[in-house]
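User: Predict the structure for this protein chain, please.
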Amino acid sequence: MRLNPLNGRWVTIVPDRAERPSDFAERDRSMELQNGRTCPFCPGNEEETPPALETFEADGSWSMRVIPNKYPAFDGDDAFAVENLGPVHVQAEASGIHEVFVFSPDHDAGLHDLDDEHAAQFMHVLKRRLTEHAQEKFVRYTQVIVNHGREAGASVAHPHGQILGLPFVPTEVLDEERAFARFAGNSLLDTMIEAELLAEDRIVISNDDAVVLCPFASGLPYEMLVAPREQQAHLQDASDESLTAVGIALRDAVAHLNRALGDVAFNLGVHTAPHQHSGDYHWHIHVWPQITTQAGFERGTGVLINIVPPEQAAATLRSVGATT
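Assistant: Here is the predicted structure, written as structure tokens:
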């Protein structure tokens, strides 16, 4: 059993149940058929989506678009206020912002296909959106996600992410903030990175500006953490050089995963400090491959069982390299 220092939760590593990379199934591509419908995110179909909030061009055509989500989970500018419905039930308006980030015009591309300039731009667009969200008083936290593949929750095959401005701070992020606060005197993530660089066996990619590693307490097979070496609490405060390095490292991390396991489903989540919060924190990105299924034990206890030790996962990912 290993304790995750970022959220204080135990995971169980069971190496005797480890599967070979070839045993993991690639993602379900059935939704790519679109049932005869046109893809709303492909070039030429811009009228299928609401007007873009921002459009970024390359070679005379758009390379990335940020558009409002047609079916937002969070919408409206009301301040967060809870309403008690009797002794136990509490509710609140789901105010906030819900955007779609179409980060490639190529329907069949993925994060691993981006060139260096495009991978860097991916992060710079996020900085622009988070900077804008931070100016809205009703947005307390912005969550950036990418769901790749039906198994990871994607409903459209075209490569895209989502940017959600929330009226509350999620528990997962609060748990990480508490972990940083308990680790007084040093940055928790900086210390983790230095320890991993010294150990070497869980490092996938490292340079002077960014690190990709399989965390010591990985809860999922081939889980990765991507972190800048430059410490900033908020992603939007990161330097251009740091963002560029992280964008390329993230692209390469997904490329390693793609070469090792094939085109598997995964979730990506950016963790940054809440907008109005200060204090010790270090923004970072999680990559969670969805190649195993949570069963009754995981759901009943909250304790994940990982059948591929992170040391083995990192060695496999390092061995295949990455191509772009």
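The chain has six helices and 15 strands.
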